[in-house]
Amino acid sequence: MNALARVLLAVIPAFMLSFAVAGVNRVEPRVFGLPFLLVWIVLWVAITPLFLYGVERLRRKA
Asked: Which residues, at least 6 apart from 32, have a Cβ–Cβ distance to it below 8 Å?
């Protein structure tokens, strides 16, 4: 179970940056004057280290 959780945590950001982009590819709404797609990509790039930190924490517990 621990290995599965680590893989899922590592795959979520890659999935959200690769495949979910098709669902959020819009100009409107704008967030802070930026198109939503740009905000989506920046958000996921910014929080990817948190997911990888979670993977590392799970690896150390095992």
From this structure: 39
Q: Which residue's entry shows tokens 């979910």?
A: 20
For every residue of 2-59, DSSP letters joined together read HHHHHHHHHHHHHHHHHTTHHHH--S-SEETTEEHHHHHHHHHHHHHHHHHHHHHHHH
**How does pLDDT run across 37-52, given as a tens digit for each residue?**
999 999 999 999 999 9
Domain locations along the chain:
2-61
Alpha carbons 62 and 60: distance in angstroms, whole number: 5
Q: How many CA atoms lie within 13 A of 45 on its CB side?
A: 7
pTM (two decimals)? 0.84
